[in-house]
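Notebook, p. 212. Picked up where the previous page left off. The plan for this session was modest: take the two constructs that came back from the sequencing core last week, fold each one, and keep the raw output in the notebook itself so nobody has to go hunting through shared drives later. Recording the first one now, exactly as returned: residue sequence, then the structure token string.
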Amino acid sequence: MSPIRSTLLLACTLALAACAAPGSTSGHAVATPASSLDTVMQRGELRACLPGDYKPFGFQ
């Protein structure tokens, strides 16, 4: 195998290993954001929006 090919193979292997590594190694737990359903349930109302040009709902 040529030196250029082996260097390229090593670089690709290291790049794939870096992609597979965990993002945070600090040991701190990351809080997951509340889902949209959790927000609706907490608020007690579902908000919906319609465009103003959609007939007949855009008429005032």
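Okay, moving on. Second construct, recorded in the same format:
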Amino acid sequence: MNGMMDLDIMEACSVLSSLGTLAIALTSWYQIRRDARIGYVPMVVIDDFARWNGHLIAEIRNYGTGPALDLRMWMVRGRDVLPIEPSVNGRRVTGLHLAPTEAKRVQLEAVARESASSYAVSSSEPLPAVIRMRYRSVRGRTFEGQTHVPPELG
């Protein structure tokens, strides 16, 4: 009879050990899923604006933990929303991407809707009040932000 009681305690300990292992597995699964959701999130910010040769230059930086893909920008002047064709180091880029902690100096040129040509923001024209940005993460989520252009640059 004593041997039978020992076996039951052994089985109970084995079941408790299995439940503990299952709890650890579930906790690990939850943490992996949570990290996948909150990880690799870009956060693009325009740190500074400057004028150079009549062009508006923006210092754009990604403060997030993941890359910002296909960064698109628009200049908003009153009711007009004009898409921006960015230039980096004097070269026009079709797709602007920022790695984590990467910064780029970007020349902002708005494309006029009335004509197919683009024009630079010159010192005689009023500056845009707001620059809107839209970009994607590697997880496929879309993020948006906006930055006000300082009025003293006008």
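Notes on construct two before I forget. Strands lie at 44-52, 55-62, 68-77, 80-88, 91-92, 96-98, 103-111, 118-120, 130-136, 142-148.
Flagging for discussion at group meeting.
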